[in-house]
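haha ok so turns out i had the wrong file open the whole time. this is the CORRECT one, sorry everyone. sequence first:
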Amino acid sequence: MPEAQKSHSLKMVVAIVQRGKADDVVGAAIKAGAPAATVVFGRGQGMRERLGPLGIAIQPEKEIILVILEEWLSDQVLSAMVKAGNLDQAGIGFVFEVPVEKAVGYVEAHEVVGGAAKR
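then structure:
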């Protein structure tokens, strides 16, 4: 996409996956153009209780992947994350995207050279 047509608005892609599954999803996001990702650990609640005895199959431990990126990259990165994590299958996890109104310290994808930001 020509530079003039690229939107520099920011998006945040959030994926919630089963514990131990984040590495593949993060790797796919970075390969698809995401500048970086942050993974935090969490615990799901509610779904297991609603499923009753079958809820045992849903592990409460989760990995939450946060990716801030430029809007023009969001579709390709989100698609790569879905494919790598099988997030289009029910019960595996889910992913969503939200607009980022303000960000301080963000390094744009084209500024990253050889793994370090240009100075």
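Residues 71-85 form the longest helix (15 residues).
again sry for the mixup
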